[in-house]
Design goal:
By secondary structure, the protein is an alpha/beta fold. Helices cover 44% and strands 15% of the residues. Helix 1 packs parallel to helix 3, helix 4 crosses helix 7 and helix 5 runs antiparallel to helix 6.
Length: 452
């Protein structure tokens, strides 16, 4: 009996949503896997791998298809284009699937979707690709080669080449495509993570940068882990944890996190306060506030609250109230392309410039919440001078009551040499053991006051 909906049907549906409608792949994939939760682990794994792999390698797959198809990818019908892309991904990256099965299933899917007249075209392109795949030659020019080999848009490469040498860029690109364990922050000091995870059949390794950071793998679904449900740990990249280390909160501090969802840094700050003080975790929408609250409830922390507040809207009640303001702001996300692969296809120089402007607007607003002598910590998950170092220099020049704080001794020994101007650091995937991430720690002059 033929299944009414196959795994390849589902993959095609997700690809169409992402490539034709502009939806975010991680959101669509999560919703689809929820809808088809009756599928077994192997089928769900196939859907996830083919979807994510096709999107991650899309520029390369289109380059390959253009070598073997008389009709160029851009001129193909969207359904056929995505059937062929996912099929070529399987041919190139999934040795466990026979070439003949890939070709046959793609033809069946084209017919099923109403393109029976193109069955010969689909079959011919894929069989030619399967025969000639090993002989495909990539461009010789460095930028063009990197774009094709690592499926990175030229506009991003051009941006990075203004700052980094080709070897560094290629290291980052290769790291984006590596499969990595999940990084977590272990919170329960009374329990040993190795013992807890061993009992749950999860592989765990300590991260070298921080004693409470771990990398885990070998689990099926995070929500099924009792240790997660009981709040023993939170999902958080090491780079995000370093924000809290650099901020160096003290017991009793009042902290405002202005763009907090889903709450990783806010929860971390609350833990570092050892039950004292208060963290106000803010975000723009009720949906995001609910995400924060869900994590607060799971961890059981009492010195943190979730609040709906637009970071762009001035809050008079917060003026000079915060010992620390955390401004982890909306950005182009170029440091997390390994986790959100389709972001790179949405990136434009104009978009990055608009985001840099938005970041400045938010910084201008939330700086007023910092007490004299307090700390403003600015961070992004991107690799772009305009959104990072340039914004910090602009801010310090416009608001001389703030100055960079020396964070070198607050970071692990492996990172101290990479700290710029003593108070900021750009982490690079493949160079550092983290996502691509930027942070800057700025202190407000003790003698300064808005009430003067």
């Amino acid at each position: 009996m033929t299944k009414p909906v196959t795994e390849r049907d589902i993959v095609l549906g997700i690809l169409m949503e992402v490539t034709e409608k502009g939806m975010y792949s991680h959101i669509v994939l999560r919703e689809v896997l929820g809808k088809y939760q009756y599928l077994d682990k192997k089928e769900r794994a196939f859907i996830t791998r083919v979807t994510e792999g096709t999107l991650e390698h899309m520029i390369e797959l289109d380059y390959i298809l253009d070598r073997f198809s008389k009709v160029k990818v851009k001129k193909m019908k969207p359904v056929i284009r995505n059937i062929l892309r996912s099929a070529v991904y399987q041919l190139k990256y999934m040795d466990t699937v026979p070439d003949s099965a890939v070709c046959n299933e793609a033809v069946k899917l084209a017919v099923k979707k109403g393109f029976g007249t193109l069955r010969g075209f689909v079959n011919g392109v894929l069989r030619s690709t399967a025969r000639g795949l090993k002989d495909v030659v990539y461009p010789k020019e460095t930028k063009a080669r990197l774009s094709v080999q690592y499926s990175m848009p030229l506009c991003i490469l051009e941006l990075w080449m203004e700052t980094y040498d080709p070897e560094t860029i290629e290291t980052m690109l290769a790291d984006f495509q590596k499969e990595k364990p999940l990084t977590i922050r272990w919170s329960d000091k009374s329990r040993n993570p190795e013992e807890i995870f061993a009992a749950e059949g999860v592989t765990v390794q300590r991260h070298p940068y921080l004693p409470y950071a771990c990398r885990i793998s070998g689990y099926d679904y995070l929500g099924d882990l009792e240790s997660f449900a009981k709040g023993y740990f939170s999902v958080q990249d090491i780079s995000s944890m370093l924000v809290c280390e650099a901020a160096a909160p003290r017991e009793g501090d009042y902290i405002i996190d202005v763009c907090a969802a889903p709450g990783g840094k806010s929860l971390h700050m609350a833990e570092l306060l050892n039950g004292s003080g208060m963290v106000e975790a803010r975000d723009l929408t009720q949906y995001k506030v609910d995400l924060i609250q869900e994590n607060i409830d799971r961890t059981g922390l009492l010195n943190i609250r979730a609040v709906q507040q637009d970071a762009l809207v001035f809050d008079a009640d917060s003026v000079e109230k915060a010992d620390i303001v955390v401004a982890d702001l909306p950005c182009s996300g170029l440091g997390v392309l390994g986790k959100k692969t389709d972001l790179k296809y949405k990136a434009t120089p104009e978009g990055a410039a608009q985001l840099a402007g938005l970041q400045r607007e938010i910084l201008e607003n939330v700086r007023t919440y910092v007490k004299p002598g307090g700390t403003l910590i600015y961070s992004t998950c991107t690799i772009n001078h305009a959104e990072n170092q340039d914004n910090v220099h602009w801010f310090l020049e416009k608001y001389p009551e703030f100055s960079l704080t020396d964070i070198r001794e607050r970071l692990c020994s492996e990172l101290r040499a990479d700290v710029e101007e003593n108070g900021m650091i750009q982490l690079l995937p493949g160079i550092h053991q983290s996502d691509g991430f930027f942070l800057a720690c700025m202190k407000r002059n003790c003698n300064d006051s808005n009430n003067k």
